[in-house]
Specification:
Layout: H1 3-18, H2 24-30, H3 36-44, H4 50-56, H5 62-70, H6 76-82, H7 88-95, H8 102-108, H9 114-145, E1 147-152, E2 157-162
Antiparallel strand pairs: 1-2
Helix pairs in contact: 1-3, 3-5, 5-7, 7-9, 8-9
């Protein structure tokens, strides 16, 4: 088989592995590819089944394990295992990802590598600030919903009256 055919086949697998339209059986097959970039795309794919992500968490490529850690479909137990990965780049990837569960970020704050611990703390701060802003926005929405227009017979204008 020529190099051109191998590269074309690899590119097709890479594209299929990243497609949300890829079937479960295709993703399972592609997760066993000999090319780590194809396995990484499978790990990034939001359609990849949780058991395949758990299997890919043990991949020899740190890039694949980082992609598994960042996938929101990865079971928490698998993400917790990755938080103690021997490869510091996997732990850094988790520490810098805002979608990493708070419990995992808290664990990474205690990492023996000070850079990872600082990054986890920084990400936790971002997550907490974001939640705080979202909470204030929701509070404003709720308080606005507690008001309803009522007619003011004296002025023929609507006024806001609390429904509480």
């Amino acid at each position: 088989m020529s190099t051109v055919n191998v590269n074309a086949e690899l590119m097709q697998d890479y594209i299929r592995a990243g497609s949300v339209e890829a079937s479960e059986s295709e993703l399972r097959e592609l997760a066993s590819s000999s090319h780590h970039r194809v396995r990484m795309r499978v790990a990034e794919n939001s359609s990849t089944p949780a058991d395949v992500l758990t299997r890919l968490a043990g991949d020899s490529s740190a890039e694949v394990r980082i992609a598994v850690a960042a996938n929101s479909k990865t079971p928490l137990s698998t993400v917790l295992d990755l938080a103690t990965d021997d490869d510091e780049y996997v732990r850094i990837g988790l520490a810098q990802e805002v979608s990493t569960p708070v419990a995992v970020l808290s664990l990474l704050e205690q990492d023996e590598n000070p850079y990872i611990a600082v990054e986890a703390s920084r990400t936790l701060r971002i997550v907490n600030e974001s939640r705080s802003r979202a909470g204030r926005a929701n509070l404003r929405l709720v308080s606005n919903r507690n008001c309803m227009p009522a007619a003011n017979p004296a002025s023929n204008q609507a006024v806001m009256v609390s429904s509480n």
